[in-house]
# Entry
Amino acid sequence: MSIKMCIVAVTACLLFVSPSFAGSPLPGTQTIKTGASFKALWDKLEAAVKANGMFVVTRASASRGASGRGIKIPGNLVIGVYRNDFAVRMLKASVPAGIEAPLRFYVTENADGSASLTYRTPSATFKPYGSADLDKMAAELDAIWAKIAKQATSG
# Structure
């Protein structure tokens, strides 16, 4: 068999056996559909973050970037949230876990004009690192994340 035929055969096999994760969220993923508009949910989320003693440390929005180029897409926003005392504890427990910070909330605009809030629980995010100290910290953050989500999506 020629090298070209081997490459074609291997590629074909990979296409058939590769898992598809489209529409399949990671463990610990929580999504809450609301009746709020995209901007209203964004504002409520930021207020809830502050009310729970956390900080918005990053914001990224493909819809805002696209708008700046004259392209309209449904609203989306990733907000990175964390606090330095948790960062210090995280790094003490596991330096490799630092790639997970800040933890994120994702606001998306639905087709009907409402918005949804999605996040992964901190315990699910940090579980793969196998650290009891990290798991303890993540459980504390789970409670804070649940409060933030409830406040942002209520009413």
